Amino acid sequence: MTDRGDHAVARSKTEKNKAQKTRNTKRGSNWVLYIAVVAFVLYIAVTIVDQNVKIRSAQDELAELDDKISLQKIKIEELKTVAEAVEKNDLDSYSDYIERIAREELGYVKSGEVVYINIAGD
Known about the structure:
Helices cover 82% and strands 0% of the residues. It contains two helices and no strands.
């Protein structure tokens, strides 16, 4: 009877060891799964932030390009007005345009005119 009792005790210990190893293995795989999920969530968060930065940058660039388009449209309208004046031989409009461009963009002044430069930048 003692052989059976010893055999039963040994069997019981073996089963307990196997159960404990299975639990340890499950804990280890849970830990790995937990780290994988956390890493994935961090990756998603970083990706979302990066995409938001890129979207904001593209929106800023789009706004800047819209401003440039508006300025070009204004210049086109101005040039159309000048072209119409030239076609009609309206030299006053044409000469006014040329004078304005010479003054504003090229810095020309009329003879006898005094130019004041604001060094404060206001």
